[in-house]
Amino acid sequence: MNVAFHVTGHGFGHATRAIAVMQALHRILPHIHFIICTEAPAKLFADNLPPEAFTYRMIRLDVGAFEKMMLDTDVELTVRKADAFYDGAHGLAKQEAQFLLDHRVRAVLFDVPPLAPEIAFRAGVPSVGIANFTWDFIYRAWKPNWFLLKQMAEWQAKTTLALQLPIGHELEAFPRRERIPLIARKSTLTRAQVRRELGIGDDKFCILLAMRGMKAHLASMSHQQRDVVIISFGEVDSSEGIHVVEDRWNARFVDVLEACDVVLTKPGYGIISECYAARKPMLHLPRKNFAETPLLMQWMDEWLSHAPITIQDIREGRLIALARELVARPYVWKDQPINGAQVAAQRVAALIG
Prior knowledge:
Blueprint: E1 2-7, H1 13-28, E2 33-38, H2 42-46, E3 54-58, E4 67-69, E5 72-73, H3 75-86, H4 89-102, E6 105-111, H5 116-123, E7 127-131, H6 135-140, H7 147-156, E8 161-164, E9 177-179, H8 191-198, E10 205-209, H9 218-221, E11 228-232, E12 242-244, H10 253-259, E13 262-265, H11 269-278, E14 282-284, H12 292-303, E15 306-308, H13 311-315, H14 319-328, H15 340-352
Parallel strand pairs: 1-2, 1-6, 2-3, 6-7, 7-8, 8-9, 10-11, 10-13, 11-12, 13-14, 14-15
Antiparallel strand pairs: 4-5
């Protein structure tokens, strides 16, 4: 049984939670075959799904948001790119609907390209959205009277079912929606087990660098505190106090997360949910011009041990002190379910059989 999964190429969080849903759905329906349509890296899926369970198609199905720098959205460029891309939406929807028919696709899952339900509707198959926000919600904050918002609303109104995640807005674009728990990956190993594999002693204070674009600030993070290790996934080079993990660990992010004491990142659904699942405090850099950010911060204030940090703090050598301060701060974690992938998979399985 072929099922398409349309995944936005914006960041890795959408892809990792799509992977979690596919893993859960494959356990329920072992005969399912996913056709993954996205610009997210193929290796991300190859590292986490059985090769016989999916086919990868590199294709742009939405625009997402472009950044001036790692923390600031380029609104003007995003609007210009979106206008150009969606000008060809009718032709793309026609092409992709025919693809679904040619490959006998049973349903379309999406996270969360707005054109996906229109493509499914044209092919006469159900569509299921899985999201905590929609792109028209993000774009409306920049250009409230943009003609594209109405078009996106019309496409999204054709969604068969939307599965609404926490940490977001109400997904008003979808006429039929159901709430599901957090989709959050969690390691099955202990901190000590992962540290042994990484070659890091139990006595070390570990900071995980969980974001891209930090290479320019490497010199500021380099240090000579022997009891401190900063772990990076390879964007930066090894230096004093920086431990760069091998490529084989890319598919095991949540294991590396389990080994650490605190995370340095920028707010996003994926990293927030996984820090919550692992009970890891988060130092976060500010993220500008993105309507999701206040919603993320509101959720973090209630559910996550966190504190802000600035690039200036890092440049001036305050990272380690601020990280230690956050970890030492008393915090009582509250429980909420993190089995959203399993709930979503059960709902989809019931729909497509």
